[in-house]
């Protein structure tokens, strides 16, 4: 049995786990959800739900991972002593691989736009036209480059791959966002954006759709249910205090989502001031890929030559956000192949990368019919159900004294804390019910 990797420092783990959680969803999904769901009212509901719902599930994953020191399949197999646990783990590995298959396509688009900002600086127009065209070759090439980048980091293992790069990339990401916020805030139109983002419309707080959106956002932004946090948890030292380290990850993730909103929403209103259309025909704010690939580039074009540098910085930011998430996704099936199947790490990384690229290729060649379907199947259906199953494992299947033993290794007095008074029954009764209700609503 090879020596398992471990994070060498607390900050290394927090930045890697927050990097996994901070992805494109925080940067493009969160801000537009805020602006179209009553501004700061949505932020308050989101903050509440992130701690009421996402944090307990995050803790379940971290505790299961660290206690069993193994990948998702073996860990769930051990605590349930059944093939059902292993089957759930394999379902998690398949889900996360499919998420990475579509994520890598989007990550490839980010790389293409980043490259375009670079070639535009030197005025290579024909290259720029090709980079901006939605062609199969472009999508395949950049998807492959994105997956290769991800693989190169995962090849290094925990300490010299994932941790080393997370500690460099995450602070860079925050610095780029802050610099862009300062620049954008001084542009005409930014004030309207700030008020759309920060002024709450409390009349909407109890709208079911707002609650469901906020819950979904909290869940997916922490990349829960698919084993990324479970695998990262298995690399945490036994000396660490898990409840506090989990809270730190949740706070960093929420913090990045909120500062991303401070950049994106004022940017959209600056774009509006410069004559770019930011509302769809039904009056809602444009969101998702249209926001990132049409509204913001149009804004960068409208601010002249400095726009090229802003564009370059912005897409660098998007690439970093995408890579810090994709490395955690690739680690889930790789950890399984290395530990359960005894495959050498190098071989496991390239084999999984090839399989995932194969899936991405199928999606690219049948883009209109498959892209949206794979996203819905994985993030709207599979991920909440996996989160539900993890709550059942942590709340009902795994013995409570084993959980307490695991937590005590990092915080000896844990049974006297508020966390231990609330979390066990909470993850047992409250989380499964809320997730089930949310799931039923989103499907029906």
Summarize the structure in words.
The structure is a single chain. It contains 18 helices and no strands. The protein is mainly alpha-helical and 444 residues long. It has a single domain, classed as Amino acid/polyamine transporter I, CATH 1.20.1740. The mean pLDDT is 89. This is Sodium-dependent transporter.
Q: How would you name the oligomeric state of the polypeptide chains in this document?
A: single chain
Series of H and E elements: HHHHHHHHHHHHHHHHHH
Largest sheet: none
Binned, the helix content reads over 70%
The CATH architecture term is: Up-down Bundle
Instruction: Could you tell me the CATH topology label.
Output: Amino acid/polyamine transporter I
What is the rounded Rg? 21 Å
Task: State the name of the first-level CATH class.
Answer: Mainly Alpha
Structural class: mainly alpha
Overall form: globular
Spans with pLDDT under 50 lasting ≥5 residues? none
Q: In whole angstroms, how far apart are the ends?
A: 47 Å
The domain tally reads 1
Q: Count of helical segments?
A: 18
């Amino acid at each position: 049995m090879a020596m398992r990797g471990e994070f060498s420092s607390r900050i290394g783990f927090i930045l890697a786990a927050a990097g996994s959680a901070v992805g494109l969803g925080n940067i493009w999904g969160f801000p537009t959800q805020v602006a179209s769901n009553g501004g700061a009212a949505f932020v308050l509901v989101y903050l509440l739900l992130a701690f009421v719902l996402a944090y307990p599930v995050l803790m379940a994953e971290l505790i299961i991972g660290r206690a069993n020191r193994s990948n998702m399949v073996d860990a769930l197999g051990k605590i349930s002593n059944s093939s059902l646990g292993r089957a759930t783990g394999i379902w998690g590995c398949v889900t996360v691989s499919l998420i990475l298959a579509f994520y890598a396509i989007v990550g490839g688009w980010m790389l293409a736009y980043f490259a375009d900002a670079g070639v535009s600086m030197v005025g290579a127009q024909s290259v720029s036209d090709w980079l901006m065209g939605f062609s199969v070759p472009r999508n395949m090439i950049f998807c492959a480059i994105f997956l290769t980048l991800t693989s190169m980091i995962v090849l290094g293992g925990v300490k010299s791959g994932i941790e080393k790069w997370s500690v460099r990339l995450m602070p860079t990401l925050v610095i780029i966002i802050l610099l862009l916020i300062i620049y954008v805030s001084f542009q005409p139109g930014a004030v309207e954006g700030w008020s759309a983002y920060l002024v709450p419309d409390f009349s909407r707080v109890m709208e079911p759709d707002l609650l469901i959106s906020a819950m979904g956002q909290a869940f997916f932004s922490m990349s829960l249910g698919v084993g990324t946090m479970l695998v990262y948890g298995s690399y945490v030292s036994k000396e660490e205090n898990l409840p506090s380290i989990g809270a730190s990850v949740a706070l960093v993730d929420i913090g990045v989502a909120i500062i991303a909103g401070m950049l994106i929403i004022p940017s959209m209103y600056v774009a509006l001031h410069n004559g770019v259309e930011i509302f769809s025909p039904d009056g809602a704010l444009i969101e998702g890929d249209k926001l990132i690939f049409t509204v913001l580039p149009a804004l960068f074009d409208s601010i002249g030559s400095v726009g090229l540098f802003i564009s370059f910085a912005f897409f660098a930011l998007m690439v970093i956000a995408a890579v810090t998430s994709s490395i955690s996704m690739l680690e889930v099936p790789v950890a399984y192949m290395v530990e359960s199947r005894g495959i050498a790490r190098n071989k496991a990384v390239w084999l999984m990368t090839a399989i995932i690229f194969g899936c991405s290729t199928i999606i690219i060649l049948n883009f209109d019919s498959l892209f949206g379907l794979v996203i819905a199947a994985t993030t709207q259906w599979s991920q909440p159900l996996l989160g539900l199953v993890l709550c059942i494992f942590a709340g009902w299947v795994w013995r409570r004294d084993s959980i307490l033993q695991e937590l005590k290794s990092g915080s000896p007095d844990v049974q006297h804390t508020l966390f231990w008074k609330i979390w066990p029954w909470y993850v047992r009764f409250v989380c499964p019910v809320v997730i089930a209700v949310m799931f039923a609503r989103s499907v029906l």
